[in-house]
Amino acid sequence: MKHNFGAGPCILPKEVFEEASQAVLDFNGTGLSILEVSHRSKEFEAVVVETERLVRELLNVPQGYCILFLQGGASQQFAMVPMNLLPEGGKAAYLDTGVWASKAAKEVKKLGQVEIVASSSDKNYTYIPKDYSIPTDAAYFHFTSNNTIYGTEVFQTPATNIPVVVDMSSDILSRKIDVSEFDLIYAGAQKNMGPAGVTLVILKDELFGKSGRNLPTIFEYEAHAKAGSMYNTPPVFSIYVSMLNLRWLKAKGGVEVIEQENIIKARMLYDEIDRNPFFKGTANTEDRSRMNVTFVMENPEFEAEFLELAKERGLIGLKGHRSVGGFRASIYNALTITSINALVDTMREFEEKHK
Ligand code: PMP
User: Fold this and answer.
1) Which of 149, 201, 291, 352 is least surrounded by CB atoms within 10 angstroms?
2) Mean pLDDT, range 189-195, rounded to an integer
3) Residue 50: what pLDDT?
4) Pocket of ligand 1, candidates 170, 171, 242: which has the most ligand atoms within 8 Å of its Cβ, to mutate?
5) Domain final residue, candidates 219, 252, 285
6) Closest C-alpha to ligand 1, atom 15
7) Which tens digit of pLDDT belongs to each residue from 271-318?
8) Residue 191 is among the residues annotated as catalytic for this protein
9) What is the distance in A from the centroid of ligand 1 to the CA of 350?
10) What is the whole-number distance in angstroms between the Cα of residue 101 and the centre of ligand 1?
């Protein structure tokens, strides 16, 4: 058995893979593969409608927000956000909590001014800055809710009166959120929503045209919203598999239920990291992510040997990002407690062997 701790694209439920592979051969009894149906067919239109309905229901999205399925990944949103929200000559406020946050801020500079309200780069992004003020004259405030590389997560939405934009790529659908705290949420699907290729955007309708810029149509949120995410050919298969994954989440009891499981999984792993004298966590304790658990060895010379043992035990994708080193266990929704136990057992086995 393989235990996939990869950071993304990542593990999805086995049932989803099975159903998706069936649809590659025969989609809903149509005698056609999901890969060959028209995106304008009534069967696929029903998929988009259901996927949207599931997102709305699972995240409790209020009226006044639209849900879009776009392409280009979260990285395209780094650009689309200022294109659509930042007026000429305007300023946007960004919280710098890592590589993704700073890549997002970098795109703003091509269109206007960016103010970094706070940064944790002084300690290699091992913590979430807390005491900072958000300028009231900025067009919007942007932050990253979960820092996939560094294993830190923002559990408290910063308070401000200006529009709030969040990159939730790696923790969306992992915990309950209050959508009304945000004006725009975006997430590359390839963690907890589905496979790579589709990007979820949830935004307030009132933000349409907010920048006053004359944008190429493909980059206008409003154009995609008006066309129900069918302005051009959408990523048909990625949306379909996302729908299957959202159905799975709903059948499990939804976001509240998965959140409780995720809390337990994260605690099991952090408890072992804190107990086992061979390992130590890298993120500030109160900011520890429930999705990406980053840790190193007290003696870095052991790291290659531990990775080798992990591989023998079927643990995949544990090598840390090069900017942190050590290990990163990504423990997304579909990763089971059995896999957490397999990792904890392997850490204990290593301890026994070397103590
Ligand atoms: N933001 C976060 C928090 C991420 O984890 C990632 C990728 N893992 C990105 C943005 C970039 O996403 P994409 O590759 O979809 O552009």
Assistant:
1) 352
2) 98
3) 98
4) 170
5) 252
6) 73
7) 999 999 999 999 999 999 999 999 999 999 999 999 999 999 999 999
8) yes
9) 33
10) 10
Is 152 annotated in a binding site? The answer is: no
Quote the pLDDT of residue 234: 98
Token pair in block for residue 314: 């079927």
Question: Across residues 174-185, what is the average pLDDT?
Answer: 98
Q: What's the 188 CA to ligand 1 centre distance in angstroms? A: 6
Number of domains observed in the structure of the chain: 2
Q: Is 79 annotated as a binding residue?
A: no
Domain membership of residue 176 as a residue range: 14-252
pLDDT score at 205: 98
Pocket probe for ligand 1: among 128, 144, 148, the residue whose CB has the most ligand atoms within 8 Å is 148
Residue 176 annotated to the active site: no
Distance CA 238, CA 194 (A): 7
- Of 252, 283, 311, the residue at which a domain comes to its end is 252
Residues 16-61 have pLDDT tens digits of 999 999 999 999 999 999 999 999 999 999 999 999 999 999 999 9
Backbone angles phi, psi at 46, to 5 degrees: -65, -35
Task: Determine the atom of ligand 1 nearest the C-alpha atom of 98.
Answer: 3
Q: What is the mean pLDDT of residues 152-166?
A: 97
Residue 155: per-residue pLDDT: 96
What is the per-residue pLDDT for 127?
A: 98
Q: What is the DSSP letter of 122?
A: G
Residue 147 annotated as binding site? no
Give, to the nearest 10 degrees, the angle between helix 337-354 and helix 303-312: 130
Residues 151 and 297 occupy one common structural domain = no
Kindly give the distance from the C-alpha atom of residue 100 to the centroid of ligand 1, in angstroms, as a whole number: 7
Distance CA 51, CA 249 (A): 12
Protein residues whose CB sits closer than 6 Å to any atom of ligand 1: 8, 73-75, 100, 144, 148, 167, 169-170, 188
Specify whether 316 is located in the same domain as 283: yes
Q: What is the mean pLDDT of residues 80-100?
A: 98
Return d(Cα 26, Cα 20) in angstroms, integer: 10
Instruction: Please indicate if the annotation marks 233 as binding a ligand.
Output: yes
